[in-house]
Amino acid sequence: MKASVKGRYTNDKSTAAATLAFNAGDVKLRASMTDATVVNGPSLNGLTLSVDKPGVAEKPLKLTYIHSRGDNRTIVDGTLVFDPANKVSAVYTLGTRNCKLKYSYVHGGATTFEPCYDLGKNAWDFAISKRVYDDVFKATYQTLSRDLALEWSRNSKFNGTFKAFGE
User: Fold this and answer.
1) Are 94 and 75 in contact (CB under 8 A)?
2) By the 8 A CB rule, do 32 and 19 touch?
3) Among residues 95, 127, 153, which one ends one of the domains?
4) Distance between CA atoms of residues 38 and 118, nearest Å
5) 161 compared with 101, residue with greater pLDDT
6) How does it assemble (predicted)?
7) Alpha-carbon distance 133 to 125, whole Å?
């Protein structure tokens, strides 16, 4: 069993999160909650339950269930990893047509291609990213709105972290 507690305090906002994970046979169960779960009394806001189960065609499958009582939304998220370079994921909001299917391919460990189909909008989105040392360059294109976005981010232990983007 693993447990973690994280907290952050700034002048204008403080947050907290807790995670509990344990193995039950070949299934890994995880429960996470944020401070929204306990502020103003117990609630389901900020509560996430997930199950990792190898066994769908002998490939790892991760299922996540998220319920937001304030928004009255329930989301089911699933990811099937075929190998380190290929995975398929789906996100569905129950009771709506909001469902996204995404394929992710990592080429050479540094370049990622991600086509995504949104069933609710009947539209494709595409993303490509390239990692160069501590930098990541990413381009996304949304076919429905015809928006092209470029992003550059850096996560360096020595020089700090930043993100720049433009549309």
Assistant:
1) yes
2) yes
3) 95
4) 33
5) 101
6) Homooligomers form large rather nonselective pores in plastidial outer membranes.
7) 26
